[in-house]
Specification:
Blueprint lengths: L3 H4 L7 H7 L2 H13 L5 H17 L4 E5 L11 E3 L1 E4 L3 E4 L3 H5 E2 L19 E5 L6 E3 L2 E10 L8 H21 L8 E15 H4 L3 H6 L24 H16 L4 E6 L5 E6 L2 E2 H21 L2 E4 L13 E9 L16 H16 L1 H6 L4 H4 L14 E2 L2 H11 L11 E2 L9 E2 L11 E3 L4 E3 L9 H23 L4 H16 L11 H10 L7 H4 L6 H9 L5 H54 L5 H31 L5 H29 L10 H6 L2
């Protein structure tokens, strides 16, 4: 049996490989670039390219690609072989420093939100040396940033790297005030818990809605769902266990720190969680994880669904983004220590995060806004659309003591006992967990639970990093001018707590009472994507993000347009798919079965046999047929109305207010018809088959 340690990262051009294959002076210069952001000269790039090529060829690679993350939400790659012409009709294998550093994909073919016209095609990819190159499918993949001919960011990596730089600059200012002169860099770290569904591939191939949209647009509830809570953490079925084993192995080869796997709440739903990494690498790894998940599933004759709400009536899938702040020399700035009330540095960073979440709650909501996530947020499975921060009792009490200038007298940790002598005693945590909170403190990190399963974690981390950088900037500006640092520190903490305690909530985020309480507190409630996206261009948001160099105003406007276009395109595809399925499959199926019932009723009547079932069911189905015909007409009208005018903002609102309700009405009628229709005639696999076949 292979040892994990023998093959972990075997397909990654990581630090160990670089140390072995690069000359010492080249290795040191490259490390300086990776760790300190020093500019990389061309000689070093050429040496790295040669070593990278030889290593890749040794591992079976024939091609290389600049692997980047355009604004499509997935990754992109253009493959070039290593071959070059040689005398005598032969070829030689080449890969230059220039090819490593720069690529030129067509920028006009990717979403740009007006940054690029169709005829303005040139774009550039630039090597990101902070994220290791890796081999996938015999291709050397080089993580890169992607920009237009004019230098505008057309990807998710570039703003993420900028936000990390902004956070580091401001955090170092704070650390220097506390006497830390050794830390050179501060980075955010992330660990994305990825939820997903597995269904049988043969059933998937018979569902046009899953193929075209990633979610079931029709489907009556199965007799059993998640009511018994028996799937969560339950024994993993052999077929799924085999899939998870191969998934782990493939991810480990790529250096992805896949750690935890288990069944999730809904039938057919599962989760994979990694060990933390620097946010840039964690983002790359999560994109890679989603791709590998889907590819491995196909090899097991299954399909991995990453949509936020693939099935109505059971839990959808999120991606909990665990976020923290660390120094380059290993200090976790959100770790409270044994006496958090005495840890002033921790308290300042904690309060900075609270202030950031309150000041920029709309940006955090925008960072997770998609058509798919709109179906998930606010249900009893995911956080509400209202942003709040959960701290738990101990930290809440500490902040209240600061606010009230009172000494803190917390009880501290308590020993847990089970009343069974043979079971071990241990100390419990001082805070509970709150699964209804969108942004919960969990020990030495915050868990942002609103990110959707299919989304990139880059967006959420960009906004988190940037907002916290702004809070730290405000604090540093005050503290650097202080004559009495300790006195001003207390005032900074107290002022911030008083101004932003409205965002703190330790209760049940699902309750109706919280919605009313949040409204009284003045918190934002932005339930849908069209509700929240316009807030991206609010002056305070534009000024904050541009002042830290995370986005230009033009880049922000382009994101707004792209996100709206994506929302409208997704719902339009869903509406068109519903119409196609309803008219070409569901109505004919119901009609055939209804005719069969009528024929049987006539036959039984001639035999003087009771035909109540046939008559009543046929009548019900006929009524539902007529209802579906009306709903189809309503959906067509709503769809056509939504397309009027070129204004994307207006279209998104018309889709929200007209198209989605019409889709819901059509689904309702079709799902009721499904329950009455013989399985022989129903054209699509049912929820019972989809959720319980693996």
């Amino acid at each position: 049996m292979k040892k994990i340690s023998d093959y972990f990262g075997c397909m990654v051009f990581n630090d160990q490989v670089m140390k072995e294959r690069l000359a010492p002076e080249v290795y040191e210069k490259l490390k300086k670039t990776i760790e300190e952001g020093a500019r990389l000269d061309t000689n070093v790039a050429s040496a790295v390219a040669e070593a990278m090529k030889e290593w890749a060829i040794d591992h079976g690679a024939t091609h290389f690609t600049h692997w980047f993350q355009p604004l499509t939400g997935i990754t992109a790659e253009k493959h070039d072989s290593f071959i070059a012409t040689a005398p005598g009709g032969r070829v030689m294998m080449e890969f230059s420093g220039k090819e490593l550093i720069k690529g030129e994909p067509d920028a006009s073919a990717f979403p740009s939100g007006g940054l690029r016209a169709t005829f303005e095609a040139r774009g550039y990819t630039a090597w990101d040396p902070t994220s290791y190159a890796f081999i996938k499918d015999n291709t050397l993949c080089i993580p890169t940033a992607f920009c237009s001919f004019g230098g505008e960011a057309l990807d998710k990596k570039t703003p993420l790297l900028r936000s990390m730089e902004a956070l580091s600059r401001q955090a170092l200012r704070i650390l220097r005030l506390f006497g830390n002169t050794t830390s050179k860099y501060v980075h955010s770290s992330s660990g994305a818990e990825q939820e997903y569904f597995l269904i049988d591939r043969s059933l998937y191939n018979r569902r046009p809605d899953l193929i075209f949209t990633g979610r079931t647009l029709f489907g009556a509830k199965a007799p059993k769902g998640q009511e018994l809570h028996d799937h969560y953490f339950g024994a993993i079925k052999p077929r799924v266990a085999a899939y998870m084993a191969e998934l782990d192995e493939e991810l480990w080869k790529l250096g992805v720190l896949a750690k935890t796997e288990h069944n999730e709440v809904a039938p057919g739903q599962h989760e994979l969680a990694p060990i933390y990494s620097t946010t840039n690498i964690a983002t790359d790894h999560n994109q890679l994880t989603m791709e590998v998940m889907q590819n491995v599933a196909l090899r097991h004759n299954m399909v991995c669904l990453l949509h936020e709400k693939p099935f109505e009536g059971v839990n959808g899938s999120g991606k909990h983004n665990n976020w923290s702040i660390d120094t380059d020399d290993g200090i976790n700035l959100l770790k409270p220590g044994a006496s958090p009330h005495e840890n002033a540095q921790f308290l300042l960073f904690l309060v900075a995060v609270i202030q950031a979440v309150d000041d920029y709650q709309d940006l955090l909501r925008i960072s997770v806004a998609t058509a798919g996530n709109d179906h998930r947020l606010g249900s009893h499975e995911a956080p509400p659309a209202i942003i709040s921060v959960y701290l738990g009792k101990e930290l809440t009490d500490i902040l209240e003591s600061i606010e009230n200038d009172a000494p803190y007298s917390g009880a501290g940790r308590r020993e847990m006992e089970f009343g069974v002598p043979s079971l071990p005693a241990f100390f419990g945590d001082t805070t509970d967990r709150n699964r209804t909170s969108p942004f919960a403190y969990t020990g030495n990190k915050f868990e942002f639970r609103m990110v959707g399963a299919s989304d990139s974690i880059a967006c959420a981390n960009i906004m988190l990093n940037s907002a916290v950088a702004e809070s730290l900037r405000i604090f540093a500006d005050r503290l650097e001018k202080a004559e009495d640092f300790n006195a001003e520190l207390h005032r900074v903490l107290k002022d911030s707590i008083v101004a932003h305690k409205r965002i703190l909530f330790n209760g049940n985020g699902y309750s109706d009472e919280w919605i009313e309480e949040a409204k009284r507190r003045g918190l934002s409630n932005l339930p849908t994507t069209p509700d929240c996206l316009p807030r991206m261009l609010d002056r305070k948001n534009v000024e904050m993000l541009t002042s830290h160099g995370v986005y230009t105003e033009m880049e922000l406007r382009s994101r707004y347009e792209i996100l709206l276009e994506n929302y409208t395109a997704i719902v339009n595809i869903e509406a068109a798919t519903m119409l196609d399925m309803a008219q070409r499959d569901i109505l004919p199926a119901v009609s055939r079965f209804s005719s069969e019932l009528a024929e049987n009723a006539g036959y039984k009547a001639n035999m003087n046999v009771d035909c109540t079932y046939e008559k009543t069911t046929s009548v019900e189905l006929s009524e539902l047929q007529n209802e579906m015909v009306r709903c189809i007409a309503d959906l067509k009208e709503a769809y056509d109305f939504a397309q009027k005018g070129a204004d994307t903002t207006g279209m998104s609102i018309r889709i929200r207010d007209r198209v989605l309700p019409a889709m819901k009405a059509l689904r309702s009628a079709a799902d009721r018809a499904e329950v009455l229709t013989d399985n022989y005639w129903w054209p699509f696999p049912t929820y019972a088959q989809l959720l319980f076949s693996v």
